[in-house]
Amino acid sequence: MTKPILDVKGISKSFGALKASNNITLDLKPGEIHALIGPNGAGKSTLIKQIAGGLTPDEGSVWFDGQDVSALSTAERAQKGMGRTFQISSLAMEYTVLQNVVLGAQGHRGDVFRFFRPVMKDKQLLATARDALAQVGLEEFANFRTSELSHGQRRQLEVAVALTLSPKAFLMDEPMAGLGAEGSHRLMGFLDGLRQQAPILLVEHDMDAVFALADRISVLVYGEIIATGSVDEIRSNAQVRSAYLGEEDA
Amino acid sequence: MSIILLIEQALNGLQFGVMLFLMAAGLTLIFGVMGLINLAHGSLYMVGAFAAAATAAATGSFLLALVASLVFAAFAGVIVETVVIRRLYDRDHLDQVLATFALVLMFSEGTRWAFGSFPLFLDKPEWLSGTVMLPFGIEYSLYRLTIILVGLAVAAGLFWMIARTRIGIRIRAGENDREMIAALGVNISMLYTLVFALGAALAGFAGALIGAIQSVQVGMGEPVLILAFVVIVIGGIGSIKGAFVGAILVGMTDTLGRQLLPMFFGLFMEPAAATSTGASLASMAIYLLMAGVLLFRPKGLFGGA
Amino acid sequence: MKRETLLNLGLMAALLAFPLWAYQADEPFLITLTTRAVIFAIAGVGLNFALGFGGLVSFGHAAFFGLGGYAMGILAYHAQTYTPLMEAPFLIEGTKSMPVIWLVAVVISAITALAVGALSLRTTGVYFIMITLAFAQMFYYFANSWPTYGGEDGLSIYIRNDFPGLNTMDPIQFYMICYVILALVLGFVWAAARSPFGLMLGAARQNEERVQAVGQTPYRLYLVAFTISGAITGLAGALFADLNRFVSPTMFAWNMSGEIMIFVILGGVGRVFGPVAGAALFILLEHMLGGLSEFWHVYLGAILLGVVLFARGGLYGLIAGREVAHD
């Protein structure tokens, strides 16, 4: 069995009386898309924050690429190779599209404290940046101001910025949210191929997308993982049907 | 040094702290409710002092002077709020700082224009002059003692108002959620004007009370304003309780520091050097206090998480 | 060529032509006035580095301006009284050499900005504004109550400091020194705005989460920006003290912090040359309104209020368009 890239070992997090994460164990193996689903308020955002940094678990630990990263900051985890996209697009809105991807490439390469080299003339960064834009199909928009992009294009740009980090794993928080049918379809095709580059932990509401893409699915309900398994296993799991899918059918 | 002198200085520190609270309460309320940083608060303090001095000169009545300080400062507050401040609630802090700094320039120079550069004098009334005997044979200025008591009474009234009255409930609601209280049908712009006027009146009142100890002059508001900032940063911006604790802390630290530090250095330095070193350090003491608090609690003692 | 570039060039050309004309016309006062504008511009460019590019609203830059001033004052005072600054553990003598003084001013301001920034940047928003203000006040009161260097009366330096090969007492020669320093500082800031650091700092101003997600720490970026910003403003302080041959605690006063901020705002926040336009306009207003009325700050206040409420881009916003260029 291949070693997981990301290994979440029994993490718990409480806010007062509310147990937002209860002894969650979850892993992400090379080459797979592992989807995390669950009803609203199940604690998905809390879990993502504990994995990506910004929120420290009360108990348990997060391992990434064979290393305990629980005590590292968000920035340090990103440097280790966590490529994150946000649920609500989080970009430098005043910058052009190209500047945003160059930002990613520059952040990943380090050497940020340089004051005399024009960053937008750095051939290496530009090559990485343009390549990432081409992969998500935004190359024509390189010189657009980010605030001029449509909602869907911003989601694509988020993915492009994550690509510039040459991540070892992607953490994608609802990348399809707000995309039209066509946009979703295109992004699905892209993610399908992307798993060969790096595995994806995919938080997603769109069940069709999840069932079409995921190698494994974990179901989070009230801060607990109630089931993990293949698409078929999850589809047929009685507990999941009643706790979650049942609601959708009703 | 005698214990009596120490107690006297502690009382002075308390008096200073109570006055700082009157300034800081308005600042912190205005920030808590409207999210506004108001540099012109010191100008309202000055307006109160000038109104009191002018009224006292015209009528000879100290009580009338105090009333005038409240009325004029509140009135100035209402005008400033409706003409300028109102446009700043949705702006970022930079705009608020600059616009209220512009107001400070206008207030200061306008007052200099009207009253000249020479200080005015506001005399404390006959019936508050002299000293009183406190327990343990401590002789203390009656006026300063009155300031402490009046200040504490105003503080108590303010706490009561915010905890118990309708307007207080609205103020607290406004701190939590502006849209919610608008939805409840409270006239929000009226509430804002009212809170601003209340803060202005407290500042003006403090200006009048202090004006009788120090001189009434242009620029008197700025040092107090900055101390009030230190107070609310220490206490936690938006918290009235924090403002009170912060004000007493700052008042005590400053007053006792000025008294004790030179004496402390006098223990092992020659007198002249001890005085200057002590005085220099004392002038920095409250800022060091602030830095210390922020090191452990970046949002102040009573600030939110 | 873009309008902003044209405006930059025009501004710098005017700042060269006007004093030269004043020199021809034998109007040394106008040269001194322009020198003031140029020095204020340097202070503003310094603040703009933190405020405009990093979004750090520092209301305490008078601290660095004053430190630069006192670095000059103290060094020159010891040189003119032939007393050492310090004897133990090693001897430090005063100096009248401008380059040495500038170096000391820059280093002291940078170290102070690093310390003040390290503490202040733990907070954000309105806390940051008030804390930077309070730290500047700390220096103000300290300078007032510390008798060694004149306390509240300040320090007078009889003869302007030396620069190799120049007569610094000649207004036009001193002006040229300041102008060249302004040009060098602008060159640095212009390059830095386009550098990896500038890109990352600007991103942190817009969205800290984004910067963290690409593996960088906003706090470090801010701290470096604040330190550089303080150092530049400190250099301006040293020049200002040399211009007046006088330092006093008023260089630390909060009005000074406010005025430096005004230079930035009048010109246009986040524009490399904005503070130059802002400082020039400020001096122009001071000169013209000051001639109209002793109470010209009333008008200054009204103008500032108007700019904040109705013309937020400043002069550059009005002339070169609202959008800040980022290429």
Summarize this entry quickly.
The complex is a heterotrimer of chains A (250), B (305) and C (327). Chain B contains eleven helices and two strands, in the order H-H-H-H-E-E-H-H-H-H-H-H-H. By secondary structure, chain B is mainly α.
Q: How would you write the strand order of the largest sheet of chain B?
A: 1-2
Number of helical stretches of at least 4 residues of chain B: 11
**Outline of chain C, from the CA principal axes?**
globular
Portion in helices of chain B: over 70%
**Could you say what the CATH architecture of chain B is?**
Orthogonal Bundle
Write the element-wise H/E pattern of chain B from the N-terminal end onward: HHHHEEHHHHHHH
Oligomer: heterotrimer
Strand content of chain C: under 5%
Mean pLDDT of chain C: 92
Q: For the largest beta sheet of chain C, what order do the strands appear in spatially?
A: 1-2
GO molecular function, one term (chain A): ATP binding
Domain ABC transporter (chain A): 6-247
Organism (chain A): Thalassovita autumnalis
Protein name (chain A): Lipopolysaccharide export system ATP-binding protein LptB
Question: Which key features would you list for this structure?
Answer:
heterotrimer; A: about 250 residues; alpha/beta; Rossmann fold; 2 domains; six-stranded mixed β-sheet; four-stranded antiparallel β-sheet; 9 helices; C: about 325 residues; mainly alpha; two-stranded antiparallel ribbon; two-stranded antiparallel sheet; 13 helices; 4 strands; globular
